[in-house]
Amino acid sequence: MTEKKSLTRRTFLQGTAALGALAALTGCTSSSLEEAPVNQEAIDGGEVEVRHAWCQMCGPARTSCSTLCYIKDGRWVNVEGNPAAGNNWGRGSRSLCAKGQAAMQTIYDPTRLLYPMKRVGEKGEGKFERCTWDEGIQAFADKLKELADDGMPQALGMLSPQFWPVLAQMGRRFMNVYGTPNYMHSAICASQRAASKRISIGPKADCAPKQMDKTELLVIWGANPENSAVNQGQPANIVKQKARGMKLIDIRPMMDQLTSKADIWLPIRPGTDGALALAFLNVIIGEDLYDHDFAENWCNGFDKLAEHVKQFSPEWAAEKTGLDAEQIRTVARIMGTTKPMGILYGNGIGDQQNDGNWECVSICLIEAITGNLDVPGGGGAGKVAPPPLVKTSAIDILTDRMPESDIDKENGFAPGVGNLVAPEFPRWYQGPKTWESGGSTAYYKGLMSILSEEPYPLRAVLGQGSNPFGATRQPKNVAEALKKLEFYVVVDTHWNSSCDYADYVLPACSHYEAGQQFATKNSPAGTFIGMNQQIQEPMGESRSDWDFLLDLAVAMGYGDDFWGGDMDECLREQLAGSGITLEQLREANGGIFVERTDGAKPTDPVYQNYGELFAMLPNGKVQCYNEWIGGKPNCMETGELGFLPEYSGPPEGIAETPDLVEEYPLIISDVHAYRLCEHSYYVSIPYLRELQPYPWVRINPATAKKYGIADGDWVKIESPYGWCKLQAQYFEGISPEVLMARRGWWQSCEELGLPGYGSLDGGADTTVLYNTDIEKFDPFHSSMAKQTLVKISKTEEGEE
Amino acid sequence: MSKQYGFYVDTDKCIKCWACEIACKQWNGIQAGTVARRKVHEVTTGTFPNVTRKFISLSCMHCANPACASVCPAGAITKRSEDGIVVVDKNKCIGCHYCFMACPFGVPQYTDEGMEKCDCCIGNGVTPGDTPHCVMSCPTQALQFGELAELGDAVSQMTAAEIVGTPLASANATAGPTVTAATVVMTPDELAIDDGGEKVAAVNSNGC
Predict the structure, then answer these.
(1) Fewer beta carbons within 10 Å, N or C terminal of chain B?
(2) Which chain B residues are within 8 Å of A17, Cβ to Cβ?
(3) Do A371 and A394 fall into the same domain?
(4) Are A255 and B203 within 8 A, CB to CB?
(5) CATH 3.30.70.20, domain B5-204, yes or no
(6) Does pTM top 0.90 for this prediction?
């Protein structure tokens, strides 16, 4: 025995038993601004240097957590949360999540892409040779000029799974100047939920409580903050309020970590949340638990909704959701009578189901008709913070440069929307007022235009910081599209699983190597501003994402609109008027905190400010009967949207497709976010991979035993659309009819000797399992199902 | 002894995010795939849908009477009189594993350098008694650190009523931990109590 990685069960239990004699302590906060963070002597003596960075482990160009990075002998060795910035629970917090703690390992990852590469073999064959940056950028610019000469600039699509600033600001500016509206957004995103909220209760109203210290009941519904935003305030606040006495109901297929703290858990079948929401409305209205004053004064078509939901009884929903009808009724009553109530709903629903729009609309209506909107502790109703003391500006995306076509003019579309290859939202919805950032195409549908050539094929695609084999569903179809695509350019830190299909693959550096973005955080105590200081020179020939777009713009002859290709000039423009110079920011090792001296404190807003909240909605009221979207074309322009919430359910489900159940008896879904990864990235990082060495699938032990599958066995998982192999992890906190996995295993981890796995059939990616029939996507916002039926069998690791 | 520092684990607040584990590794320069001075453990009980999960972050207990130190033939393990932190001198450690056998918590682990365990971060430059990095990193403030007397006082004030009449009062599963008097405080948690192994369905270090 040379090492012992973890306590055994025996020793662990002995430990916990002894410790039990002591007990709880609350309210003790150990962190303080004054306490020495780390070997202060080493810092004072110059052995250790401290630099500031915005943690990018939750995605490229994110600026949620300010960090202090400790550099010794030229190497970044440690990182911690910056207590001055106001991360997580506020000033003084030095906390960081697991991913954030491992940030150093991302820049030293031996699997980093270091040199520009040019394809020399067939697409998908993987034959590449080194080239120069200039060659790659010039080739891309030449292709873009060719498209423009053909009168088809819109044949360029830019992939952007999340609205990350590099593409949402600089990229969008490039697109507007060049003339393509095809910003290819994943449709698996918070913006789906935001749109459903906008059309039902208005953009300014909210279901999640912004004064949770007053919330009596919190419903976590398909949200996953303990995995997707560990250090961004919510988990800390939820466990704190739970200790205060807040009741917690959790609606998720798996017993996640916060679920384990809940008073009631509804282990719902993946993809059936819409049915549950309709049954809640049925009970709340049917049993007269709604707020009559609100229904009478602030609801559009309440009676029509009341009549409509009569058909959705708890018994009807029980059949769909796999839940007990009486439990549905009980929870509906609790939600109808406990005030104030907030609903924290997240990416698990809304944008990962075929009927995500009506699902989220229904949740918004529950929050509204129970009288919980805009009351302290209910939905929204945040305190009004004093204004920021440092004012900066975002990059102007030059919306006015996008040519407005006759179709745009005639229909009131935002400029360019008439040219979208596959509108993410209906074109009529993408007007200048509702979609001010410009038009968007749905990622998957846009890629499929290459195969269908309807209404025209995309001819060039830029995949910058986005792996289309991981950012959308069914990589087999994506691979076919990329094979046929004329020109595919990848800019990434790693050789992602789509790179074999690229014409050029250009190496991006991390933001830790670039020093080209800043952000602010405002709090009652003051305003923090910090810059990504360059922690070290870019690895190999890697270059920053910002510089790539600037260089491309210059190569296109757009230098005048892009600061002559100088990012520093762009940054200076954003800082103009802030009172802080770029040089000051670059020198501020811990960022700059401007203290509030006027004594201003957060103030109470005007509560129940419904006139203003609902001003944008038809008749100025909550859309129980939706006159904003009802009767208008869907996003496919193949039919009309309805006025009242409907349930369609997953494309394959136990209740939905009983014929399939005999062959495919189990439901599978996967977690959208996991606390050790960022989508399909970071299983190359040793500290993170150590905690999840193999592609896992959670399975109830009773189910596994039925198939002769032991804990840790490899399992072949087959759906009607594809198959993959994952390693079984026994878990009691999941229904015997459900499996849950995590997507994205293409990266290897050299330090631990652990492999990467394929993204196509036979690999380890659940995305191959799902139905991608475009006709079944959400007709309003293009969300696609992430649930299907599967059969399982025991197998071995490796190729078959 | 003038002072005794210890950890406090609030199992109601721990969300098994693993921040403490990785914070411990990065600040103590521990390579992935080797040892872990701190681990987040999970106890899952019951069967679907009546399941309970509890998460407990543990490292060395810095016992009042450390059995590891008593048995060490090389005199490599010391309980510091000024703060009660138990430390190991790797220059003296001969890697004999006696301390692992003696420790009721199975804490000592070994690399080629010698025995590895928590030293409350004093080896990486944190002033003894200041907050170790695992505690500083905790996103939900589930993990705390302080003088045991203060932690104990707070505990007795807050939850004395809860302790009486619970299985916790007679929770000594073995004589070992009692004799060594671990200095870690936890929330009362009947699920973490072993009543002969019946209640405990699974204890995982990884996953989910």
Answers:
(1) N
(2) 171-174, 177, 192-194
(3) no
(4) no
(5) yes
(6) yes
